[in-house]
What we know:
Blueprint: H1 2-22, H2 25-28, E1 44-47, E2 52-59, E3 78-83, E4 87-94, E5 104-107, E6 139-145, E7 150-155, E8 167-173, E9 180-183
Parallel strand pairs: 2-4, 3-8
Antiparallel strand pairs: 1-2, 3-9, 4-6, 5-7, 7-8
Amino acid sequence: MVFVRRLSVAAALCAASVGATGASPVQAQQPAAVAAQQIDPKWMRVATDTKTVTFELIAGATPLNGALNFNGFRDGELTLTVPGGWTVVMNFTNHDGMLSHSAEIVWDSMPVPLGAVDPAISRAYTKDLEQGIPPGGGKDVMRFTATPPGSYLIFCAVPGHGAGGMWIRLKVDASVTAPKISLTPKPATR
Ligand SMILES: [Cu+2]
């Protein structure tokens, strides 16, 4: 019995120390880039009556990848799925403090383009595709109809940015009835 009691005391001490470590201020002050980016519900507004989805597309949202990211994601690790035929309004904001960025909808093919190409969907691009929209809060709005169904990339067309990982995914899906945002992490490669 004594042996058993000692074991449970040890287990309790162990659990307490793990808990204390997890809540320590040292861990809370780790750089933000270390924490996995989460989906923010504020990124998307859905108007079912007008079949319109409004998406906040934030260039350089975090320091990830030298700020070559959209909403804190790179290399296709976030996907916006939209029902076919819906209207998409993309409010582009350049949150980066240093670099200009842009966005356009291109076909899902690898390797990604090195710079601006014809958009895969009519009107689905920001102004100044290769020059980019200025850092520090520059804005533009893309408004287009999500058709035809297929797999697309939301891609920064400033030369080299897309190839450097600055792209996420847009899926136009005729089989869904509501838009959604999902995490689409790359399979681990070794
Ligand atoms: Cu860019």
